[in-house]
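Example S7 (structure tokens).
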């Protein structure tokens, strides 16, 4: 059976990797366009519907990124504080050169990969989107690199270390603005570890200035380690060094929480002093573990919020589309009615013009001769035409069209036409509605989120809970 340690690592790691895959399937077979990243892109594309979405929903969809599948630990400290040695110890391999001349020191990202490879700056920048802003800083890309290795020591598969150049006082010119680079990296780091060494260099003012700046925004992420503690002399010396550094840090920091300075040294270096000198390096590893646990919970929480947001966008669009379809149906009916009406009114106007101005009467509605004479057949078979006495009984249409020089009729017809045009403008405007393809896609997104992804999320949560309970009982 697997040792318990390996099991916990694997459950957290599986969850982080699988959650990231739900966001970005990375072209796995049959997943084309079927991940949250693709859904968010489709749902936030600009159309008549998107601009009516609540701003917070739309922002969430536009800014949706797959969660990073590991935590980022930024290492900051004065020159020779042992940052690189610590990375090598944690990873269990000699990745970092431990004695680098300051002027050649750069920023190195150390993370687990499929093989032992090194990347230079340009490749590093294009692979990690969070470095985009950093890469625009002057001179940095040439001093940026990534080291991948296969180690599965401790929690290394879920940790990415960013090792920064040692900070020194003095006239030395770095090829880039180290302080600014550290500030930018701290924005993206999960943890910022400050390494100080006891041999007088701990209070290097350059290092302290950076610590002070970091504390303004990131004090909650920061932890302090006094390294090489086994070299700090006897017990009295050690106590003095610790109190001196704590005092300096408290004067500098904006820390709201009590400042803890963890004293550490690398076990394999210590030789016979092991056991006599307090070593808090296990606490450091524990802190990393806790961060990973908390990251896993955050990722699951983010996943459920993101799914809910996308699902709500689909609902809003479908709902809006229903209203638009109903509106367009009504406008279609109005169109038919108004076209018929306009036809009737225009025909009547044409007839009015013929009657009143051309003296024509094709339908003979005002034919006086017809109205006024009658033909009778006498008993001997001969015909007689009789002219009726009295006024001509004119047709009612004739009366409406011709009375008072036809002016009232003209006014009524013109008003009728104006009303028809007005109603046409008011009632027949169509609004944009979604195509049947888009509706199908919305339905399939909704189904996938509500059935597939929800089930995956539930399963991840269940595994996390079971793993925690299992650990507690172990």
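Recovered sequence:
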């Amino acid at each position: 059976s697997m040792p318990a340690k390996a099991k916990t690592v694997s459950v957290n790691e599986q969850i982080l990797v699988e959650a990231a895959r739900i966001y970005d399937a990375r072209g796995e077979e049959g997943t084309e366009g079927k991940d949250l990243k693709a859904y968010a892109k489709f749902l936030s594309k600009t159309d008549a519907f998107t601009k009516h979405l609540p701003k917070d929903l739309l922002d969430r969809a536009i800014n949706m990124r797959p969660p990073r599948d590991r935590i980022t630990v930024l290492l900051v400290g004065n020159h020779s504080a042992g940052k690189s040695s610590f990375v090598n110890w944690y990873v269990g391999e000699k990745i970092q050169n431990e004695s680098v001349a300051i002027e050649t020191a750069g920023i190195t990202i150390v993370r687990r990969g499929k093989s032992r490879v090194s990347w230079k700056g340009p490749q590093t920048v294009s692979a990690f989107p969070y470095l985009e802003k950093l890469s625009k800083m002057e001179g940095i890309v040439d001093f940026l690199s990534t080291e991948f290795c296969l180690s599965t020591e401790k929690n290394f598969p879920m940790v990415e270390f960013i090792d920064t150049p040692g900070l020194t006082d003095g006239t030395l010119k770095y090829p880039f603005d180290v302080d600014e680079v550290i500030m930018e990296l701290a924005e993206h780091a999960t943890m910022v570890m400050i390494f100080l060494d006891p041999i007088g260099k701990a209070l290097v003012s350059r290092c302290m200035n950076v610590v002070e700046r970091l504390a303004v925004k990131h004090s909650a992420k920061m932890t302090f380690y006094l390294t090489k503690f086994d070299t700090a002399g006897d017990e009295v010396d050690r106590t003095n060094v610790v109190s001196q550094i704590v005092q300096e840090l408290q004067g500098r920091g904006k820390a709201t929480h009590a400042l803890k300075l963890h004293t550490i040294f690398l076990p394999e270096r210590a030789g016979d002093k092991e056991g006599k000198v307090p070593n808090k390096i296990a606490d450091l590893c524990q802190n990393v573990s806790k961060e990973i646990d908390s990251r896993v919970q955050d990722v699951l929480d983010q996943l459920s919020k993101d799914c809910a947001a996308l699902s709500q966008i689909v609902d809003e669009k479908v709902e809006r589309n229903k209203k638009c379809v109903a509106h367009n149906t009504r406008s279609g009916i109005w169109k038919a009615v108004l076209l018929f009406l306009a036809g009737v009114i225009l025909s009547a106007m044409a007839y009015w013009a013929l009657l009143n101005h051309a003296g024509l009467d094709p339908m003979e509605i005002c034919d006086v001769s017809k109205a006024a004479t009658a033909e009778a057949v006498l008993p001997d078979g001969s015909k007689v035409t009789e002219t009726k006495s009295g006024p001509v009984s004119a047709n009612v249409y004739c009366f409406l069209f011709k009375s008072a020089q036809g002016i009232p009729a003209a006014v009524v017809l013109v008003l009728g036409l104006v009303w028809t045009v007005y109603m046409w403008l008011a009632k027949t405007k169509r609004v944009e509605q979604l195509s049947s393809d888009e509706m199908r896609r919305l339905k399939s997104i909704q189904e996938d989120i509500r059935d597939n992804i929800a089930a995956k999320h539930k399963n991840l949560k269940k595994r996390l809970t079971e793993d925690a309970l299992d650990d507690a009982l172990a």
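Notes on this example. The first strand starts at residue 71 and ends at 77.
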